[in-house]
Amino acid sequence: MASQLSPFSLLLSVCLAIISHLVINCNGDSDTSTAQVHIVYMGDLPEGTATMTAEVHTNMLQQALRRDASDSIVYSYRKSFNGFAAMLTPEEVKKLAGMEGVVSIFPNGKKQLHTTKSWAYVGLPEKVVKRSAESDIIIGVLDTGIWPESESFSDEGFGPPPQKWKGSCSSGSNFHCNNKIVGARIYRSAGKLTSNKDVMSPRDTQGHGSHTASTAAGNFVAKASMEGLGKGTARGGVPSARIAVYKICWSEGCYDADVLAAFDDAISDGVDIISISIGGTKAYDYFTDATAIGSYHAMKHGILTSVSAGNEGPELGTVTNVAPWLLSVAAITVDRKFVTKVKLGNGRVFKGTSINTFDHGGKMYPVVYGGNAPNSTGGFNASMSKDCSSNTLSKKRVKGRIVLCDSVNSGEGPAAAGAAGSIMLAQEQQLVASNFPLPASTVSGSDEISRYVMEKRNPTATIFRTVEKKSEASRIVPGFSSRGPNAITPNILKPDIAAPGVDILAAYSRGKTATGIEGDKRVVSYNILSGTSMACPHATGAAALVKSFHPNWSPAALKSALMTTASPVSRDQNPDAEFAYGSGLINLKKAANPGLIYDAREHDYVEFLCGQGYNATEIKLVTSKAVDCSDVGKKIHAWNLNYPSFTLSGKPGGTVKRVFRRTVTNVGKGHSKYKAKVMSSKELKIKVNPKVLRFKDVGETISFRVTVKAKLKKSGIVSGVLVWSNGSHKVRSPVVAHTLQ
Ligand SMILES: *[C@@H]1O[C@H](CO)[C@@H](O)[C@H](O)[C@H]1NC(C)=O
Ligand SMILES: *[C@@H]1O[C@H](CO)[C@@H](O)[C@H](O)[C@H]1NC(C)=O
Ligand SMILES: *[C@@H]1O[C@H](CO)[C@@H](O)[C@H](O)[C@H]1NC(C)=O
Ligand SMILES: *[C@@H]1O[C@H](CO)[C@@H](O)[C@H](O)[C@H]1NC(C)=O
């Protein structure tokens, strides 16, 4: 089709397509028709500029490009950092890249929500304490918006927002803010909506944003459940805190230009913590990644950004959000599982996994194997229909029957064919309970079902409603959660921490059905979902809780408190060890009283950036701080950033030795003595000097050195632990050595 079009008509159609998004001048200027949204990042706001206007960017662009640029600018970032997003042709990008003041130019990439398909919830300790310090905390949630009518976001009992709040509320689609949802803005650089599932308002029509916001800061809601499943009190980490909504994600994904615009606003609006459960499919250089750039400026303003590690696991090196100023969160299971029993006509019962709110009431249905029911009119054969993917099943053969599938699928295929239910065979025990649009269960570890269905003349089965059970498989990092090592800075451990991210119950959008799949009629106020997207807001809530006790702590201090107090996770059950769970599972009982913290301020990150290989010119732009990297560079290595974990890497099979320098601040009792304890092994030797830290005052800092010698395996990870203990308090840091890929 395309080959029949003349180059002219191709250009024209591109041009028209662009016009429908953003008005640009296409008249006779074939050049600009190749224009696409790019982000021009120019670092910190110029010093001494109290208020910058958008004209600065228009003028700059006009002078550089010698054309009318007033319609090209999509966003002007000027509240919290400097830059803009604009429609630029490849030639224009080249021209601008060489300009003074420009740190980086990158295309308006698209990121995705970090949810897997489905989901249980184990909350934080359920003690209702209303604390006024908590109600002064504002959490900025960059996501798909929010469902304002949810009980989780009711403002009953809330006073007006804290004085510091400068944000605003964009209404539309009957959307209104209240004293719980104190602000809401929307960002859409991709122009007109392309799906009728989206609305141009902060209203959440996808469910993800309501879920993450309520996990971080939702009210206590007693007896919340998804159609009776997961029943319990739904609550956020800080139920009295306020929520500010920044809608950056749409049906097709989340654009970088929008992410940056949301950071620019959130920082100046006065949020305390930022939660962002999105990411790309790989790690990006810090200066060309919207999340890394936005969160750097947030950090400068004392705001911690908590982010999902990614759902790209289980392969090593898949963690996507890796900047050291981010809190990168992995997902882990809790002690609850969802069991869905299947009973065959011969009386045999199998325990499967899923979220099945439907009930066959014990009625037996005929069973058909997907491989025997291809949608041949649609051109599908048996080898395609055995997995029951969308469109592959024949309505005639499947309608009213339970369909047996050779693998776990979304349920869209069986639902479209009118199946009464679906039994999905899984290779291994499913850690994640998926939610399907029809009665369904995923069953593993047996070929008995297949044999019964193939060999029996009139096979029958029934699927029971899901029941909750206590799980033995708690504290396991599921396969989807992205793993370290950190692809950009191998000597900083990522992910940082693990938090509940499997089968989490939280608020949902009533603007969508439970699965969003055709045929599903269930509209629910609470839904059970899984993903690092669900883990991130748990860490956000935990960080907000610590901040409510220590309002002046830096983002690094909050991070350190969460990481050094995290509960150890079993290495035997998680072969990827720290690459899967970082410092361990967040522990809210201890996080607010860590004893010691590993603090870091902007100048520490500036030195880190030198160590990372950025030059003085680039760093000055980002941070507006003059720095001589060549001077600093001799002493500074990325691994000497005052981080609450220790990581070194080297060649496979070799030996690597490194001296780490760290400084801890006493945030506990004035007079205290901490002794170093290490857990090392034959492969990993750890020495600490000095071994004892004696503090006289609160706020006092003491430096020490950690010498690590590691014999590296052919691949993978060897690890140990450094613990500073005063007798009752343990300040724990993982020590990790790994081979460079
Ligand atoms: C089914 O169709 C696919 C794609 O057309 C083909 O590769 C495959 O060999 C077919 N399988 C059978 C069993 O006919
Ligand atoms: C069979 O395939 C056709 C063509 O892809 C599709 O339109 C139809 O919906 C399919 N039937 C079912 C039941 O999925
Ligand atoms: C700094 O790095 C940038 C980007 O790599 C390069 O263009 C510039 O010339 C470098 N400046 C110095 C002083 O080395
Ligand atoms: C250890 O430090 C913590 C935090 O400052 C303090 O609460 C605790 O009492 C200390 N324990 C001892 C035995 O000194």
Notes on the structure:
Residues 135-582 form the Peptidase S8/S53 domain. It is found in: Secreted. Residues 640-736 form the Subtilisin-like protease fibronectin type-III domain. GO terms for molecular function: serine-type endopeptidase activity. The structure is a single chain. The chain is α/β, with parallel strands linked by helices and 741 residues long. The protein folds into four domains: 22-108, Alpha-Beta Plaits (2-Layer Sandwich); 113-334 and 477-550, Peptidase S8/S53 domain (Rossmann fold), CATH 3.40.50; 336-470, Glucose Oxidase, domain 1 (3-Layer(bba) Sandwich); 596-600 and 642-739, Immunoglobulin-like. The chain is built from 17 helices and 36 strands. The strands form eight sheets. Strands 17, 18, 19, 20, 21, 22, 23 and 24 form an eight-stranded mixed β-sheet that branches. The chain has a seven-stranded parallel β-sheet with strand order 7-10-6-13-15-16-25, sandwiched between helices. Strand 2 (73-77) and strand 3 (83-88) form a beta hairpin. Helix 5 (208-217) runs parallel beside helix 12 and helix 12 (532-549) crosses helix 13. The chain is globular. It starts with 6 loop residues before the first helix and ends with a strand. Residues 1-30 and 117-128 have low confidence and may be disordered.
